[in-house]
Amino acid sequence: MTGFARVGPVLERHFDGQERALLRRLCEELAELMESAGDPAEVVPGDRVVARLLPDPYPDDAAASTEFQGFVRSRLAEDKAGTVRALAHDLSSGDADVGVLVRLDEQRIEVWLRGLTDLRLALFERAEEEWDRSQRRSLEQLLDWLGWLLSDLLDQLDG
Amino acid sequence: MTGVREETRLEEDRSLAEDLSLGTPWVLIVWDDPVNLMTYVTWVFRSYFGFPRPKAERLMLQVHNDGRAQVAVGTREEMERHVEAMHGYGLLATLQKVDE
After folding, report:
1. ipTM of the complex
2. Domain B23-97 has CATH 3.50.50.60
3. Which of A58, A75, A114 is the closest to B89 by Cβ?
4. How far apart are CA A79 and CA B24, in angstroms?
């Protein structure tokens, strides 16, 4: 599998039709979850992905936690939704047959680092609660694939 | 020349006294997690805090080996900003008073 290649100031990678569809779906699912997480009335209590992506900074102090979490939590949720929507946008050109060439400048690389990280965190939590072994295996393979992409981007950044 | 050096030291003493008088300092703790890559954690420490690579790697290894590392110290407000940033990057972080 090929990783990103540096072309001048930009890192490029071609995502084939299957990769493109898969990654876009993951991004859209997480974006929807984060968009509803900003509204406490909409969150399924005990949702592991929400708990992991929007953690509690004051685990020993319920009052401080509630106070802090109020607007910070919705701000974070909105940012995370925006980040994975940005990834989906970068994957939106091209189509199922030709795939898409993703080109990332320095700023966009950071968006992808964060987005890939949040997607991986979400996949891990879903895998943890998945009873079906083959489903769990699929989620773990996705986790590995995104980890590989993330690692590749980070290696390319090293200057 | 000596006059200038003395002035600088007096200024530093004054701002330290101010910090301490504002209350107990707070610390930022970053916790280990089973998902994040070591290279990613190092990158976050370099990118967000501006730590030089050796310091960022040392702290990352502390998180990895000890399960947690104290990464910053300052006012509660500063630490809350840092916690939010760390969560933005997908790291697990909490804040607490120094004495805890």
Report:
1. 0.93
2. no
3. A114
4. 31
Phi, psi for B12 (deg, rounded to 5): -65, -45
Alpha helices by DSSP H, chain B: 2-21, 38-49, 53-66, 76-88
User: Which of B27, B37, B41, B68 best probes binding to A when mutated, by most A CB atoms within 10 angstroms?
Assistant: B37
Question: CA gyration radius for chain B?
Answer: 16
- Is B60 at the interface with chain A, CB within 8 A? no
| Chain A with chain B: Cβ pairs closer than 8 A | 58
Query: Domain ranges in chain A?
Result: 5-158
Please tell me the distance from the alpha carbon of residue B93 to that of residue B8, in angstroms, as a whole number: 35
Distance, CA of A15 to CA of A19 (rounded, Å): 6
* pLDDT, tens only, A36-58: 987 766 667 679 999 999 998 88
Q: Is B90–A143 a contact, with Cβ atoms under 8 angstroms apart? A: no
Q: The pTM is what? A: 0.88
Nearest CB neighbour to B34, from listed A75, A113, A124: A124
Q: Which residues on chain B are in Cβ contact (under 8 Å) with A153?
A: none
Domain ranges for chain B, please list them. Answer: 23-97
Q: What is the pLDDT of residues B16-75, one digit of tens each?
A: 555 555 667 999 999 999 999 999 999 999 999 999 999 999 999 999 999 999 999 999
Q: Is the pLDDT of residue A131 over 70?
A: yes
**Residue B39 sits at the chain A interface (C-beta within 8 Å):** yes
